[in-house]
Every structure is written in C-alpha cells, then in structure tokens.
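User: I've been trying to design a sequence by hand for this structure and keep getting stuck. Would you show me what you'd pick, starting by listing the structure so we're on the same page?

Assistant: Good idea, let's start from the same input. This is the structure you sent:
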C-alpha cells in the first residue's frame, strides 16, 4: 500500500533510545500521525479494522500515531515509522477468514467418553469403602 507522506504529520522530539551524549542534544525520536477518519487513501473497512486492532495508537482526537526512537538518526526513524505503519495497514487490510463451524466426529466423542470413564474408575478406587 502506498502511503502518501504529504498526508502525514511528522514531528520530532528528544529520544530516550540509543545515542549516548548526543541523545540530550538532537531530536531523533519521530512521531508520525494522521487523522484516521479523514484518511481517504485507506479503504473504509481497513480503517475500521485498524482502529479495532490497534486502539492504543489512537488518541481522543481520532489521530493514529506511530512512534520510533530505534535509531540514532531522524531519517532512519522516519523510515522505521513508515515501515511500522505499512505493516499495521497490511495486517488491517487482510480480511479475517470466516470460521466454518464443524461437528465433532463420532470417534472423537467415543474417545472423550472412554477417557472420562477411565478417570472416573481411577477416582472411584481412591474412595474408601463404607464400613458395615
């Protein structure tokens, strides 16, 4: 899926990630955000699934936020955010397969009952016999 960068708001801040002393000087943490409901480049069904699958990425204003502070440079963190967003969109775009309800087989039911009977016999042998 093609992600239009002009639709994204990209902001930078100081990172708590790798960088040594440089971490206190350079804003390498990248935050990519966009308004989910007005994102026309995402199909409506995908938007709904994205919101349902990843509610932690949504804020109260309806903005979807992806953050990266994995690398020491802004450029690599921007690319990381775009890759993360692409992965999330790809997962949301896949429709979940509809479950086809099946019935238990006769043999599986008989095995279950046989196992239950065996356990019952074992437990009944543990009980003490009543004294007359």
């Amino acid at each position: 899926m093609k992600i239009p960068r002009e639709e994204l708001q990209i902001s930078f801040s100081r990172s708590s990630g790798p960088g040594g002393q440089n971490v206190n000087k350079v804003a390498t943490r990248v935050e990519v955000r966009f308004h989910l409901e007005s994102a026309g480049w995402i199909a409506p069904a995908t938007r709904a699934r994205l919101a349902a699958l990843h509610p932690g990425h949504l804020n109260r204003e309806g903005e979807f936020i992806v953050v990266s502070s994995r690398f020491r440079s802004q450029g690599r963190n921007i690319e990381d955010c775009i890759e993360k967003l692409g992965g999330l969109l790809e997962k949301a775009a896949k429709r979940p397969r509809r479950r086809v309800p099946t019935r238990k087989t006769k043999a599986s039911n008989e095995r279950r009952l046989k196992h239950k009977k065996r356990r019952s016999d074992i437990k009944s042998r543990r009980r003490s016999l009543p004294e007359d």
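That's my pick for every position. To get oriented when you compare it with your attempt: The chain is about 40% helix and 15% strand. The first helix runs from residue 44 to 53.
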